[in-house]
Fold this sequence. Notes:
Layout: H1 2-23, H2 28-44, H3 48-55, H4 57-60, H5 63-81, H6 85-111
Helix pairs in contact: 2-5, 5-6
Transmembrane segments: 6-25, 32-52, 93-112
Protein name: Stage V sporulation protein SpoAE
Keywords: Membrane, Transmembrane, Transmembrane helix
Amino acid sequence: xxxxxxxxxxxxxxxxxxxxxxxxxxxxxxxxxxxxxxxxxxxxxxxxxxxxxxxxxxxxxxxxxxxxxxxxxxxxxxxxxxxxxxxxxxxxxxxxxxxxxxxxxxxxxxxxxxxxxx
Length: 118
């Protein structure tokens, strides 16, 4: 059942992204920013946690999940150290994921021969 719920939530997020690509003039970069910002805002309002509880990886892996992690880290760090935590908490909460993305992206570039589109 967890797989089905993750598929529904993650697929729903992807459907929204595809609709934005197809029906608007928004660039993929702007859609990325909208998704991350939506995750931050929804977590700030306390709503994204419900999606995480229901959809688990389906809600935490896509881009709004990254915004959720940034906001959750910042909120946690503000509670611990004060206002300075608003600047450091998000980075601390997401540093492992960012480091893994950079490492594996570099590894794939070394293993495979990237080619430009013509």
